[in-house]
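Supplementary material to the annual report.
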Amino acid sequence: MSFDVPADRQYLESHEWAAESDGTVRIGISDFAQDELGDVVFVELPQSGETVEADDNFGVIESIKAVSDLYAPVGGEVVAVNDRLFDEPELVNDDPYGEGWMIELEATDESESLLSADEYEAQIA
Amino acid sequence: MSLQSPPLRGVHDDRGATFTEFGGWEMPVEFDGIRTEHEAVRDDAGVFDVSHMGQIEVRGPDALPLMNRLTTNDASRLDPGHSQYAAITDEDGVMIDDTVVYRLPDRDGERVYLFVPNAGSDEAMTERWESSRESLDLDAAVENVTHEYGMIAVQGPNTPDIVTDAVDESDTVAALDRFTATDATVRGVECWIARTGYTGEDGFELIFPADDATAVWDEFVPACQPCGLGARDTLRLEAGYLLSGQDFDPDDNPRTPYEAGIGFAVALETDFVGRDALQTQNEDGVDENLVGFGLDERGIARHGYDVESIDGDVIGTVTSGTMSPTLDRAIGLAYVPVEYADPGTELSISVRGRTKRAKVEPIPFIDTV
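Predicted assembly:
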């Protein structure tokens, strides 16, 4: 089975992605991760204005079968939260790189473990 | 120890299933997603490979006294083709397993029982039956036939039509009541087919020679959605059915049938192992009960999470919990002191350190057959 790994973003080994645009960084989980989790039923995310550290746990994602911590590829102040996910968590399954994004940060630092799309693809192969 | 594979392992692999270890067996956990599979069983039809369940045959002149000594229910109530749910308890009345006991047609004028213990406990149960037979000097043959048979569960409101179409003996199978069974032929394969299951829906379970498993499975796919253990767990939990090793466990969470809410499977008039302890508990009452609960806030209360009173005292532990695909909210099971067991009682569940409001609810959570 092959998974979508867009080249326009970076990844963590723990399957989160980070994509920069217009000075902010958007964060979500990969196609591989949503497939492994199965039906996503719940996300717990920080609120706007909170600060998260790169590589730290910033939230929780639960599917019917498993609960997983979410780790931040970059750190900084949260400037937007995708609150659609609270009522439509299935967006993470349907569109993990688009409508299923989780938070946006004003990034101040980034993980030293960021992977390129090629590197991440090799990891999940 | 290497994992045991069900006879259909390759068939599931070709179908793209993901697998998990369960009771020492490598079993499919998911084919097309838990929600998809769950909804198929509630609305239409699904088929599960449950070949990891044990099968133990007991026959001979003393088969009945042996069954009645080791199971909590009364096997003398079973005519050929009938079955019953029962617990297997130790001297203290603690459940070491739960099982369905079938009475098969008599063979050579003697009674034959087939009971289905949980995955991974077939060897221990065989030893238990054999040692009891020796100590009581009973004349009965005990044979662990787990690896000789495959087993599938065909479950859902549309399964009566699907199953009667699949068997040669359509009229006989269509006439089966709940917990009755008969011999039937599927694609030339002799099966033992019972109107039983563990999903809360109407349905059937079929037991057949392991070598013929693919032919039987193929008869029900694609008419039925293939389902894995993930959906089996959400379905059985909505129906309030126990999961061995989780909702009771002789080592980690020793529980009696009365505490676990299956007192209906205890026949105190028979002399089974653990009877005296259960008689006392039945007279005195239990201190704790298994209850259902629903979470009033977003989140999922999973196995092992603390249950608290609204005053913040820890009063129990979640034994099973999930997001119910049918109800679209979080539900679970937990043992709590009897004073907290009435439906409507407010509780809290500590979900990864955050307190979430919950309420005791009647079991089952859904309408079942």
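The radius of gyration of chain B is 20 Å.
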